[in-house]
Amino acid sequence: MGPPLVYNPYSFTVHDNPFDTYQRLRDEAPAYWNPDLEFWALSRFDDVQQAFRDYETYSSAGGVALEARRPIDRAHPEYHELIEIDPPEHTALRGLVSRVFTPRRVAGMEDEVRRIVNHYIDNIIESGHADLVVDLAGCFPMDVISAVLGIPASDRDMVRECADRGLIREDGSMEIPKDAVEAIFEVLAYFTEDLARRRAGEVPSRGLISDLLELEVDGRALTERELLGFCLLFSFAGFETTAKMVANAVELLSLHPDQRAALIADPSLIADAVEEVIRFNTSTQYMHRTLTRDVEMHGHRMREGDSVLLLIGAANQDEREFGPTARQFNIFRRADRHLGFGYGVHFCLGAALARLEGRVALEEVHLRMGDYIVDHDNKVRFHSGNVSGWKNLPISFTPGLRLQSVAV
Ligand code: HEM
């Protein structure tokens, strides 16, 4: 028996390296109850997948972040996100936007994504050193999602900064810091005004946000709450997860030089490498659900109304699913059954886009600055509840030449 098993996702120690705790959860307490923070945690692949599938029992309507449990919503009832709506209402709303993110539509964005990635690489390539997060991974996905949504270049830094601030959490605490709440309100105020200006014709019609103003669901226009929900969800979910994933990939590959050398020699391996990064250390470690009925799970009775965390990060390293090497990073694994993008009705709408962005970024990084050395002593964690990634990832590499001088 080791020390008592405590899983607090907000503890920086656990957040920075949750994998040993995940192992103990899977083996010793597959239905784990945290009495202080009052949540259950499911960690085995089959249980997490089954819970994602059973949306009637595991409802998203109580919020998908444990700490949220809807305080922002209560203070700001105009804001209603697709990700926190259960079927059947969810089905019609998702249908409105899903066509924009189909693999076919997304494939048509490849040249633009590559141009944006190369713009950021051009800014650093001559110097031979950079912060991979600040200078590349933490920037380009905001430009990509902004191009889709129609957020002008002049406003992207503000949205990006609010997204980062909105996710920051303090060590061990479930409280949402004041600055994080303020950041959400700032971005909501921005989108509220932006929607008004679009409606008034004060700005040109552009992107998905303008399309949403024209679209109807069940024969009616979208409400302000729904519109704001889409703006917030897409600009945050479409940015943070992908930004963190790309930096996670570079950090992991720097620790596995043989695998990095293999994908430089054969870039066709990069798509599988992206998939393995999302399996091995996904940027979205868990999602929150609220039980709509009592459930028996591994000898425990979880009660209606209880909070349940679906630990994607733990499920993705479950030996029961991925075999004895589940806890090893291996780009040759072909991990196509991971839960990194969720499962079922809320399966990540942006999965094809995230995969494209990850592949293109890793292709260009390994083509143009593939001998990068990560300064592991000075890398800094991004501390949030369920998002795993880096705030700073300093790198150095052999300087190269710029390709273009086009603004994004
Ligand atoms: C590596 C990058 C990404 C990861 C790891 C990720 C992960 C996830 C996960 C786990 C879910 C399921 C949430 C749940 O079941 O409660 C989800 C949903 C979602 N994701 Fe992503 N995501 C990524 C990139 C993106 C991108 C680029 C977009 C931009 C369009 C996006 C938009 C969404 C939306 C809109 C949903 C909600 C779908 C629904 O409720 O029907 N994601 N994502």
Q: Can you characterise this structure?
A:
With 408 residues, the chain is α+β, with helices and mostly antiparallel strands. It has a single domain, classed as Cytochrome p450 (Orthogonal Bundle). The protein has 19 helices and 14 strands. Strand 1 and strand 2 form a beta hairpin. Helix 7 packs parallel to helix 19, helix 9 packs parallel to helix 12 and helix 11 crosses helix 13. The model has no long low-confidence stretch (mean pLDDT 94). The structure holds protoporphyrin IX containing FE. Protoporphyrin IX containing FE binds next to helix 13, helix 14 and helix 19.
What is the CATH level 1 assignment? Mainly Alpha
Task: Calculate the mean pLDDT score and round it.
Answer: 94
| Uncertain parts | none
Ligand inventory: protoporphyrin IX containing FE
Summarize the SSE layout with pairings.
Layout: H1 12-16, H2 19-28, E1 31-34, E2 39-42, H3 45-53, E3 58-59, H4 71-75, H5 89-98, H6 103-107, H7 110-125, E4 129-131, H8 132-137, H9 140-149, H10 153-167, H11 178-199, H12 207-214, E5 216-217, E6 220-221, H13 224-237, H14 240-255, H15 257-265, H16 270-280, E7 286-291, E8 295-297, E9 300-302, E10 307-311, H17 312-315, H18 319-322, H19 351-368, E11 373-374, E12 380-383, E13 388-392, E14 394-396
Helix pairs in contact: 7-19, 9-12, 10-11, 11-13, 14-16, 14-19, 16-19
Protoporphyrin IX containing FE (HEM) binds next to α13, α14 and α19.
Short recap of the structure:
Helix content is 48%, strand content 12%. The chain contains 19 helices and 14 strands.
